[in-house]
Amino acid sequence: MASSVWVGERVRLRGREPEDWEAFHAFDEDSEAVRNGWRLEPPRSVARAKKETTEDAEKEWDLDEFSLVIVTKQDDAPVGSINTHTVDRLHGTFSYGIAVGTPHHRKGYASEAIVLVLRYMFYERRFQKAEAWVYSSNEASLALHRRLGFVEEGRRRRSRYANGRYDDEVLFGMTVEEYTERYA
């Protein structure tokens, strides 16, 4: 039986499909979850959500900078997304972002998706370090990154304003050696 580096015990990572618009449009209804991931924006119309999802599905991705949908292995239902960005091929570093819809929190989907992407970036693309920025008010994500073995490397104080308050951005990092020690 063939295996894929994009499949874990609970989730599978795949490209975005036009029909994913409905799940992601619904996830955007939870303002606090949206704030934890990036920034709150005015509501999008269904037409715009469909158009943007279709455009994302048709976009050409680079081998190192990409966005994937996190789906459950059980029923292939979208539960979130993970993307890589801020790729520095010279120094071998990259960052990633992850968002999981509120109904799917605390089921292990985020941690498994992160481990799968790190394995690809470290072992297939030869990167040596992953970085993630987490807002200081996002206690769940702070705990997740610590649990996964990320090291807190720094903090940008009062660098984001949301919901009437300023948040610090906490920088987490993990080297390929740290990943290998924990997950190989």
What best-fitting shape do the alpha-carbon axes yield? globular
- Quick one: how many beta strands? 7
The neighbouring-strand order within the major sheet is 1-2-3-4-5-7-6
CATH superfamily: Gcn5-related N-acetyltransferase (GNAT)
Q: Per DSSP, what share of the residues sits in E-state strands of 2 or more residues?
A: 25-35%
Radius of gyration: 16 Å
Give the ordered list of helices and strands: EHHHEEEHEHEEH
The largest β sheet comes out as:
7 strands, mixed
**How many helices in DSSP terms?**
6
The CATH topology label is Aminopeptidase
The structure class reads alpha+beta
Averaged pLDDT: 94
Low-confidence stretches: none
Helix content: 25-40%
Q: What is the gist of this entry?
A:
This protein has 184 residues and is α+β, with helices and mostly antiparallel strands. The chain is 33% helix and 32% strand.
SSE layout and pairings?
Elements: E1 11-14, H1 21-27, H2 31-37, H3 46-58, E2 67-72, E3 78-88, E4 93-100, H4 109-123, E5 129-135, H5 139-148, E6 151-162, E7 165-175, H6 176-183
Parallel strand pairs: 4-5
Antiparallel strand pairs: 1-2, 2-3, 3-4, 5-7, 6-7
Helix pairs in contact: 1-3
Pfam family, one: Acetyltransf_3
Family: Belongs to the acetyltransferase family. RimJ subfamily.
Keywords: Acyltransferase, Transferase
